[in-house]
Every structure is written in structure tokens, then in C-alpha cells.
Design a protein that fits this description.
This protein is an alpha/beta fold. It has helices at 4-33, 85-101, 143-158, 163-173, 180-196, 244-257, 284-291, 315-331, and strands at 35-42, 57-62, 64-66, 69-76, 105-112, 122-123, 126-127, 132-137, 201-208, 217-218, 221-222, 225-227, 234-236, 262-268, 293-299, 302-308, 335-337. The strands form five sheets. It has a seven-stranded mixed beta sheet, sandwiched between helices. Strands 6-7-10-11 form a four-stranded antiparallel beta sheet, with no helix packed on it.
Length: 340
């Protein structure tokens, strides 16, 4: 295993590359969306043509005014993610530092049903399935704090024989099941709070290697409708979706879409798996095996679903690509032309 300082040095090089890429693409979108507008003053160098042309006024270039951005990432820390989790958290750490340097609101969470975390499964009659939801990074962290958090995590994952790190870290970072819906419900709340704080464009990304193992349950009954406290709208399950956990995920995504929040699911899988029943494409497994990546659109109200073959030799690079380049591309596309 590489020395942490060497790993972090390589990460900084990657972060610098992302920042340069972001600035270049932002500048390109700005140029593409810029507009010329006539000013009230006459351009004296054009006055000679006033009889044949009305194009004699000075012009100014209106540059697009960029939107504020927010990124929320939810990472599956279940036992089946053991082989991939260090790579995923490393990529998320790069994104956290990238976001810090570019004034982007960023929150990253890991989730599992770690039994070290809590003995209580019930909070105010809402079954949280032993949820261990850890806020890994947020906008209040300095770059040094982000580095220190990842240094401890790296040590924990690469040197588990250390009793110091086993005792200190396994409460937060030990693995368990996949209570995805319960954790995702928390992300719905976080995203809406971020939106109400004035952030204009928010991207919620969840990364898992399996489907939800939980249901949303209230007072012992499966949740079939939900009153959104932010919009006061009541959301019902889509009864055309026969798998109850899928229907609940669809309902949560509708709550986000109605708040103009984009969503994506990065799904580490060697086959189409749980999404196979919602698409008519018959070549997904073949292409996933060949290319390592397959993208689906608008299933369960996710804007995009990125299937990544986690048995692929290049899996680590594909996870890096999905967690960074695609989000950087998305960030660069949301600008407003100034009105004056």
C-alpha cells in the first residue's frame, strides 16, 4: 500500500487538473452564452454609415452570470463495498477539496447499518433501521481538515491492526447493511435546506453497489404517502411500480425534482440488475461488460443512472470519472444571462 503522503500528492495533482478543467469549461460556456447589446452612445467610427445602416451604436458584451452550486454525495458503506470504498472516498475527498477551492457548497455522507453506531432503531416512531449516517465532509471544513479526515480514514482502511484506529474509527466507518431509503430521505432534507439557503443548482448523487435493503416504515406500517414539510405537498407511491422500495425511491426523487434539484445514481454492478425491469434495452449487459459503463435516463425519477461494472479492471478510473468529470461538466452548464 502506498504511503499516505505520496497518495495525497497525487490527489492534489488530480484536484489541480479538475480545477483547471472547470475554469476552462466555465470560460467556454461563458463565451458561448455571451451576448452583444447596443449601448445608447454612438460609435463615432461608424457614423459615416448612418444613412445606410442603423448599426452605428457602441456595443457591450454581456457575460453570463454563473449560478451558485451545491453537491451532495451519499456513499454506500455496506460490507459489500469493502473492495471499492477506499477508492470511492478518495475520489470524494478530491471533490471536497475541489469544491472548497471553487466556492461550491459540498456535503458528503457515508451510510450503513453499523451496529457499533447505536443500539436504538426507533426515533419518534420512525424506523431508521440502525442507520449509521456519517457526515464525512461539509462546507465548514478547511482544506487542512479535509486532508486530516481522509488521513485518518486512509490509516483505518490500510492499517486495521492498529488498535488506536479500530477503537476510534469503527464506530463511524465500520460496515453493515444498506439502509438506502432511510439515508436518502435525510439527503432530501439536506438538499432542500441547501436550496432554501440560496444555492441555485444542487446535484444529489448516491453511489451504491446494490439496491435498498430497507423500507420507509412509520409506526410499524410501510410509508405509502409523505407530506413534504418544505412544500406542504403530499406525495403518494406510484402504484405502477410494483417493487415497494423502488416506488419509495421514486417518490423521494419526485420530491427533489419538484424543488429543481438534479439526481443521479452511480451503481457499481456487473449487470443491469434492479433497473432491468424498467428499460426495454436488451444490450445493456453486453455493453456493460465491454465498455464498463452504461448510462440510463429518467428511471425512478433519477435524472441519470450510471451503471459501472465493478468487476472491470478499470473500475477505479471509472469511479473517478463518474464522481468528478461528470459533475464538473454539469456544473459548467448552469449559467444565466444578465438582464442588464
Amino acid at each position: 500500500m502506498n504511503n499516505f503522503d505520496d497518495v495525497y500528492k497525487e490527489m492534489i495533482g488530480t484536484i489541480n487538473s479538475y480545477t483547471n478543467q472547470f475554469k476552462r469549461k466555465k470560460a467556454a460556456w461563458g463565451l458561448h452564452n455571451s451576448k452583444l447589446r447596443q449601448k445608447g452612445s454612438i460609435d463615432m467610427s461608424r457614423i459615416f454609415s448612418y444613412k445606410t445602416s442603423d448599426n452605428i451604436f457602441q456595443k457591450k458584451t454581456l457575460q453570463p452570470k454563473e449560478k451558485s452550486h451545491g453537491i451532495i454525495i451519499l456513499i454506500d458503506n455496506s460490507g459489500s463495498m469493502t473492495e471499492d470504498i477506499l477508492t470511492v472516498v478518495q475520489r470524494a475527498t478530491e471533490l471536497a477539496i475541489f469544491a472548497k477551492r471553487n466556492n461550491i457548497s459540498f456535503e458528503c455522507y457515508t451510510f450503513t447499518s453499523n451496529t457499533w453506531y447505536s443500539n436504538s432503531n426507533i426515533i419518534e416512531n420512525f424506523n431508521v433501521n440502525g442507520l449509521c449516517l456519517v457526515n464525512l465532509y461539509n462546507k465548514t471544513n478547511s482544506e487542512k481538515e479535509i486532508r486530516d479526515i481522509f488521513a485518518e480514514y486512509y490509516e483505518y482502511k490500510t492499517n486495521k491492526s492498529s488498535s488506536k484506529y479500530n477503537t476510534k474509527m469503527r464506530t463511524n466507518w465500520g460496515t453493515g447493511g444498506t439502509p438506502l431509503l432511510t439515508a436518502y430521505l435525510a439527503m432530501v432534507e439536506r438538499a432542500k435546506i441547501m436550496k432554501l439557503s440560496g444555492i441555485q443548482h444542487i446535484n444529489v448523487c448516491v453511489l451504491t453497489d446494490g439496491a435498498a435493503t430497507d423500507e420507509l416504515v412509520y409506526c410499524g406500517n410501510t410509508v405509502t404517502s409523505f407530506l413534504d414539510p418544505f412544500s406542504q405537498m403530499i406525495y403518494e407511491l406510484d402504484t405502477s411500480i410494483k417493487v415497494e422500495t423502488d416506488s419509495q425511491m421514486d417518490m423521494l426523487n419526485r420530491m427533489l425534482r419538484d424543488f429543481d434539484i438534479t439526481t443521479s445514481h452511480i451503481f457499481l454492478t456487473p449487470s443491469v440488475g434492479m433497473y432491468g425491469k424498467y428499460t426495454t434495452h436488451t444490450d445493456i449487459n453486453e455493453k456493460l461488460s465491454k465498455d464498463g459503463i452504461y448510462i440510463l435516463n429518467n428511471i425512478l425519477n433519477f435524472n441519470k443512472i450510471f451503471l459501472i461494472n465493478n468487476y472491470s479492471i478499470n473500475n477505479k478510473e471509472k469511479v473517478r470519472y463518474m464522481l468528478t468529470n461528470s459533475i464538473v461538466d454539469t456544473l459548467c452548464q448552469y449559467y444565466l444571462i444578465e438582464n442588464n
